[in-house]
Amino acid sequence: MGACYKCNEPYLNDQAVAADAVCQKCSSWLHCCANCLHYDEYSKNKCREARAPFVFDRHGRNDCSFFRFRVKVVEEKPKKLSPQSEQKMKETKARDALNDLFRR
Hints:
By secondary structure, the protein is mainly α. It has one domain. It is built from 1 helix and 2 strands. It has a two-stranded antiparallel sheet. A hairpin with a 6-residue loop joins strand 1 and strand 2. The radius of gyration is 22 Å and the shape is elongated. The model has no long low-confidence stretch (mean pLDDT 84).
């Protein structure tokens, strides 16, 4: 599953990315160099594909025929707990560890 380069919003459509597709969350272009598998900030033309045409705007829409949507792993951040909930969680884990230790 791919994700937007700007906001990491997952792109759920399994089909090819249309040239005029935009992110639902931040409205940035999805068919752009920054979302491409071949994009490399440190290569000569910022693209690992030697036959790809030079693109000036790496975050803007383009019609490159070598475009392949980059697959990113989107990690969900754990929700922050209140101090009381954190303390209860720690107590529960400690109690479970003790029970496992002394279980026959």
